[in-house]
């Protein structure tokens, strides 16, 4: 019997009407499996797979090494931004590649001449206070002590030097120790921190009991053939990025994204060809694009994946300022359907504000999603928290905001040499979301429930339902959208991550 209930995706999107995520809903399917049976493994590019379809945007308020490490441990991947020097971006990638599960290879370090006030400042910024003390106050210097809560809890004089309160009777481990061996030392010593030192007694890493408990198992971690965490990085279409590319490849980058607001250009096509000719083993994500013609040009140039979206981001004003772009749901469906013929996955970039939007992006053809604002408020995002009207916030800005363009973001908008810069984004702030480790697990569990409701056990079968026409959709009026959310309540308690 033919199912005439609802509309196929082609019936929904081949109408030349701009549709956003909230404008449609997916009709439920048949459930014959448990939530935990859902697999979210997917293709990031033609050649690279990840266990979870989550990637972070190469923005300077979103992705540096901490974000990239956290996402990779949880099965996704982060793309390091290029609003920095070549050396700085190289170092960020190296930190990800050097990461060993359970070891902190870039711990916060102080000297004996720092004060208790510095400890409290670190605790406020990062949420921890067990700090190793070295002679120079830097990593790779001789370890002379450690300061924990027990050393400072009853000290009222915050100006007191750390040399007066630090613990010098230390339990340490030698560089090269295995995770299991280090774990055994922590258990026997009952210490909260285990400094790792080289043969000269210089601090090279740190192990934390809390981190060990949290990081005990990451079975879905995104790792390459060398068992190192996978990481991506952004480059521009400028000649400067050829030197940047060399440094990134030396650092061990797995995939690069050509970060351009409008990707269908001679400059990007030339850069894709350059990367693929010089480093054929490195996968290239082209973009951003929103039409089939744009996709065709970048695929012909050699792109291994495409980044879809032009103007839907929460801090992006391109569609308003430039009057150019496309409604995001239309862009994803059209580009994914076309790119599928060439075995090129697409990344839905922008406009995602909740789990439902992630599900919708995947249901209309995206293989992964790229998020900025969703991750910007986490502890792992760059920047410091601040308070406004009692709310804990972090700065979040578009790469086309005037603020970001002053630091290099104009490379993405072909505006580097322009005397007058026209902003296509804004600067603002987002609410604290806590640790990425908890937040991503919440997103993943929500996605699994969505897939169960749809009746798809994985992303590949979801796409089969999409292109066979068996996956059904329905447009939503404004009243239907209001009806589908919280309404008619005098007051209610919001879920933590709403």
How would you explain this protein's 3D organization?
The protein has helices at residues 9-13, 65-73, 86-98, 116-126, 149-152, 179-189, 209-214, 240-251, 266-278, 292-301, 318-322, 328-340, 355-363, 373-376, 402-405, 436-454, 459-468, 478-483, and strands at residues 24-26, 42-43, 49-50, 54-56, 77-80, 103-104, 131-134, 143-147, 173-174, 193-197, 203-208, 232-235, 255-258, 283-289, 305-308, 346-349, 368-371, 385-388, 391-397, 427-431, 473-475. The chain has 18 helices and 21 strands. The chain is globular, with a radius of gyration of 24 Å. Helix 9 (266-278) links the parallel strand 13 and strand 14 (283-289). The chain folds into 2 domains: 9-100 and 220-483, Aldolase class I (TIM Barrel, Alpha-Beta Barrel); 104-214, Roll (CBS-domain), CATH 3.10.580. It has 498 residues and is of the alpha/beta class. The mean pLDDT is 88.
């Amino acid at each position: 019997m033919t199912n005439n209930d609802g509309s196929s995706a082609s019936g929904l999107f081949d109408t030349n009407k701009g549709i956003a995520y909230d404008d449609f809903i997916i009709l439920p399917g048949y459930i014959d499996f448990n939530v935990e049976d859902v697999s979210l493994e997917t293709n990031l590019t033609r050649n690279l797979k990840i266990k979870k379809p989550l990637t972070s945007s190469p923005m300077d308020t979103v992705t540096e090494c901490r974000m990239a490490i956290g996402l990779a441990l949880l099965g996704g991947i982060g793309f390091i931004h290029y609003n920095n020097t070549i050396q700085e971006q190289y170092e960020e990638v190296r930190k990800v590649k050097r990461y060993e599960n359970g070891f902190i290879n870039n711990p916060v370090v102080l000297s004996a001449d720092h004060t208790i006030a510095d400890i409290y400042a670190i605790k406020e910024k990062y949420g921890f206070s067990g700090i190793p003390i070295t002679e120079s106050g830097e990593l790779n210097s001789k370890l002379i002590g450690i300061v924990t809560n027990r050393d400072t809890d009853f000290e009222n004089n915050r100006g007191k030097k750390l040399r007066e309160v630090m613990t010098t009777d230390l339990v340490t481990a030698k560089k090269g120790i295995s995770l299991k061996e280090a774990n055994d030392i922590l258990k026997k010593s009952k210490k909260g921190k285990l400094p790792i030192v080289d043969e000269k007694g210089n601090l090279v890493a740190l192990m934390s009991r809390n981190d060990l408990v949290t990081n005990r198992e990451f079975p879905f971690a995104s790792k390459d053939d060398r068992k190192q965490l996978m990481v991506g990085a952004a480059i521009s279409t400028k000649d400067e990025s050829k030197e940047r590319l060399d440094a990134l490849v030396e650092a061990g980058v797995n995939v690069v994204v050509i970060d351009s607001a409008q990707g269908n250009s001679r400059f990007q096509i030339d850069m894709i060809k350059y990367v693929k000719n010089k480093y054929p083993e490195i996968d290239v994500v082209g973009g951003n694009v929103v039409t089939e013609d744009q996709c065709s040009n970048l695929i012909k140039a050699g792109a291994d994946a495409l980044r879809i979206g032009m103007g839907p981001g929460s801090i992006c004003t391109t569609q308003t300022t430039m009057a150019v772009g496309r409604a995001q749901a239309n862009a994803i469906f059209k580009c994914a359907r076309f790119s599928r013929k060439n075995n090129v996955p697409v990344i839905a970039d922008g406009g995602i504000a909740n789990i439902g939007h992630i599900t919708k992006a995947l249901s209309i053809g995206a293989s992964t999603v790229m998020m900025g604002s969703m991750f910007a408020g986490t502890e792992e995002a760059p920047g410091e928290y601040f308070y406004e009207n009692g709310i804990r916030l972090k700065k979040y800005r578009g790469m086309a905001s005037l603020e970001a363009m002053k630091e290099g973001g104009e490379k993405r908008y072909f505006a580097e040499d322009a005397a007058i810069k026209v902003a296509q984004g804004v600067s603002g702030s987002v609410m604290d979301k806590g640790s990425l480790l908890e937040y991503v697990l919440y997103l993943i569990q929500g996605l699994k429930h969505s897939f169960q409701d749809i009746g798809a056990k994985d992303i590949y079968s979801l796409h089969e339902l999409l292109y066979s026409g068996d996956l059904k959709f329905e447009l939503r009026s404004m009243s239907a959208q209001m009806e589908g959310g919280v309404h008619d309540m005098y007051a209610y308690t919001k879920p933590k991550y709403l």
